[in-house]
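REQUEST FORM: STRUCTURE PREDICTION
Request ID: SP-0412
Submitted by: Lab K.M.
Chain count: 1
Length (residues): 200
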Amino acid sequence: MARKKIDNDRMREEKKNQILAGALQLFATKGLFATKIKDIAETVGMAQGLIYHYYKSKDEIYVELINNALDKMNEAVLSLKETPLPAHIKISMAIEELIKTIKESEDFTQTCRLIAHATNSTAIPEEAKRLINEKRDIPYIELAKIIAEGQGEGRIVAGEPMELSVVFWTFINGLATYKATRQAETVIPDAKLLIKMFIN
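STATUS: Completed
RESULT:
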């Protein structure tokens, strides 16, 4: 019985992840209002009624996508902050990994696009608004702490840490959105270009 429950739970998570992946592409390209449950069902190859077995509404799917995206980014930057390395190495590692992810992961670029849309829209669920207000600034605040630490070590360029953090994340989010909105092969700047902006 315990094994069957584990298998059922795993299958349920796989189905939910499938729904989330399909919904991400639709929400990022069409928006919340224009996306219907029927569209999500067709995209993931499920019956519309089966979608409702996992989610009560498209709003619930949307909120889960927003929450997951914010949590993953916040966990990543908090983990980076706790890594026992000099700050300038942390910054370099973050830039290299993020540029690589932008080049290789459509889910990441579409997620950045989704968050950008959600942040600038009033026509989203109240729970999504609450999550954005509660969680969206954590990467900026935590990266500013790493930058300040690196300035103390003499390895990060001078400037107000939060302003530099805003420059960092604006570049990353803008580049991800640039990639997400182009079908053809796109030119992605080398990580070294951005690293030179921050590291002495």
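NOTES: The chain has a mean pLDDT of 92.
Reviewed by: T.R.
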